[in-house]
């Protein structure tokens, strides 16, 4: 079996953000099968479409060096995905997140998103990221705002229609925010 070896593993206080493996597909298929959980991420999708998304994510890592990491707790439970996404036709690379059923409301998405954002800024040398959020996805809006992102614009996605673009603070702005709270 061939594995992508250039994908870094990221760590937070409670999570390991790791390369996707084939066994993760069941999490993805279950997530996309639920309209309640996946509507804000382009779902629902049947198993074949979910497989295509899963394979596209791996291709994203192979072609661009980034994608969605899978989140494992210290107990080994896979609780979601957080990553960087910039397919053909996208307005820019975005920071996105998904928590699997039962993992919402525990702060995992915020913790992982902050780690991925730091990786994008510190390792990749990128400027301020955006998060594209479907109108009505209030939980994602709250998370974006907790991460310091501000509504910047609406954007017509080539695949999903109207999305709200939330702009994250720059690395310098984050440092200033941290200084103000200390």
Automatic annotation (TrEMBL):
Gene3D superfamilies, A to Z: 3.40.630.30
Residue stretches making up the N-acetyltransferase domain: 15-171
Signal peptide: none
Domain of life: Bacteria
Protein name: GNAT family N-acetyltransferase
Organism encoding this protein: Aliiroseovarius salicola
């Amino acid at each position: 079996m061939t594995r992508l070896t250039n994908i870094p593993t990221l760590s937070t206080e409670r999570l390991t953000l790791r390369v996707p493996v084939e066994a993760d597909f069941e999490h993805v298929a279950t997530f996309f099968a639920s309209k309640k959980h996946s509507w804000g991420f382009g779902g629902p999708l049947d198993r074949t479409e979910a497989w295509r998304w899963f394979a596209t994510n791996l291709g994203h890592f192979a072609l661009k060096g980034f994608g969605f990491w899978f989140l494992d707790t210290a107990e080994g439970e896979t609780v979601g995905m957080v990553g960087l996404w910039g397919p053909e036709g996208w307005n820019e690379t975005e920071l996105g997140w998904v928590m699997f059923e039962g993992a919402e409301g525990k702060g995992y998405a915020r913790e992982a998103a902050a780690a991925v954002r730091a990786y994008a800024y510190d390792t990749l040398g990128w400027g301020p990221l955006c998060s594209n959020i479907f109108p009505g996805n209030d939980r994602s809006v709250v998370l974006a705002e907790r991460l310091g992102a501000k509504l910047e614009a609406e954007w017509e996605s080539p695949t999903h229609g109207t999305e709200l673009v939330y702009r994250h603070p720059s690395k310098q702005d984050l440092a200033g925010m941290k200084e103000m709270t200390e």
